[in-house]
Amino acid sequence: MALKKVIGIDLGTDNTQFYLKGKGIVVDEPSIVASNMRTNRIVAVGSEAKRMMARTPVHITAERPITHGIVGDFDLAREMIQRLLKNKNLPWSWVTEVVQSVPTDLTEVERKSFEDLVRESGAGKVYLVDQPLLAALGSGLDVYQPTAYLVIDIGAGTADMAVVSMNGVVVSRRLKTAGAHLNDEIIRAVRDEMKLHIGEPTAEAIKIAVGSAMPQEEQLALTIRGRDVTTGLPKELEVRDAQVRLWLVRPLRFIAENLKDLIEETPPELTGDIHKNGIYMCGGGSLLRGIDDLIEREIGVHVKVVEDPLNCVARGAGMVTDDLMTYAQLLSNFSREGVEKG
User: Fold this and answer.
1) Predicted pLDDT at 204
2) Which residue(s) pair with 228 in the sheet?
3) Distances from the Cα of 235 to the Cαs of 12, 112, 222, 223, 243, in angstroms?
């Protein structure tokens, strides 16, 4: 039993990760909650709830309480965090402090909802840190230096892009065009062009197995199964990488155009730094084949996918949890006072 534990939380649309001070990432679960509508009770959270998606009876729903990076259903999100805090990898303690990653460009109400959510889940103190700053830290970048880094974090619900310098976010932009949107594009295209109904898990499998942003040396194909639009009967088809690439052109171009706009908003001196330092990509969306080459071609600046991009934000939150005093400047004023008093 410990008097106090400090946890870094990356509460994503697709996955939730907990970093325990001194231990590393100890919880990594899908951000999904399954509820029984008849009894109004939570049936499962995390991996168990994900297995139920699109396979549940009418009275059981499996849904994501975090939508586009913000709290969509407060009660479900609180229940999910409370259950994950009881994970066997997290020791019981009298006091729990949390470093919580939050997307950029949030309203005060949205920021407050994150803080209230974690407090009501059992945390004593909550320190909110902008996601791109944590992503930069987790990528091994020194955010305290007087130089600028451009970080793009393409998650499931949002694509967060920001220029960070001197432990702060200079300019930022948050897009709803991200991993889940790419899945939706695949679902729509398979329905319209191939006359087949598929669900989100199949769309995700297509994106991972044969999806790409640029032509690849090896041609890829995947056999998928779904329901025929015309007959309503089960049907099997083959999807090729060239098809998927065409389906994803529009959303990927939208991301690249917004990135150009962000660079145009950046002060000239910092733009020079970006040209010198390059662009750093993280999040699950950065694993799409050729997306770094596409952005490099569109922007004209070297693009690097960081090491272990899926855990980048949680790793950055972990660095802050391991040494709150050193990183106090990254926290909000209210929270920093709490650190200094603590």
Assistant:
1) 95
2) 196
3) 34, 47, 14, 10, 19
Q: Exposed, middle or buried, 48 (CB in 10 Å: 0-12/13-18/19+)? A: middle
Length of the chain: 342
| pLDDT at 137 (0 to 100) | 94
Bridge partners, 5 (sequence order):
96
Token code pair at residue 52:
């139920």
For residue 46, what are its two tokens?
A: 């995390």
Band the pLDDT of 340: cuts 50, 70, 90. very low
Q: Which domains does the chain have, with CATH numbers?
A: 2-32+67-135+312-341 (3.30.420.40), 137-177+252-310 (3.30.420.40), 179-247 (3.90.640.10)
pLDDT tens sequence across 11-41: 999 999 999 999 999 999 999 999 988 888 8
The confidence band for 337, taking pLDDT boundaries of 50, 70 and 90, is: very low
pLDDT at 68: 86
pLDDT for the residue numbered 104: 85
pLDDT of residue 334: 39
Q: In whole angstroms, what is the distance from residue 250 CA to residue 259 CA?
A: 14
Q: ∠ at Cα 140 (90, 97), nearest 5°?
A: 30
Report the predicted TM-score, pTM, of the whole model to 2 decimal places: 0.89
Task: Please report how the helices 179-194 and 249-265 are oriented relative to each other, as an axis angle in degrees rounded to 10.
Answer: 150
> 41 - beta bridge partners?
36
User: Which residues are paired to 61 by β-bridges?
Assistant: 35
Q: How far apart are CA 122 and CA 144, in angstroms?
A: 32
Range list of H helices, the chain:
47-50, 74-84, 108-120, 131-138, 179-194, 200-210, 241-247, 249-265, 268-277, 291-299, 312-322, 333-341
Average pLDDT score, the chain:
91
CA 162 to chain centre: 14
Q: How far is CA 183 from the centre of its chain?
A: 15
**Number of neighbours of residue 19 by Cβ within 10 angstroms:** 29
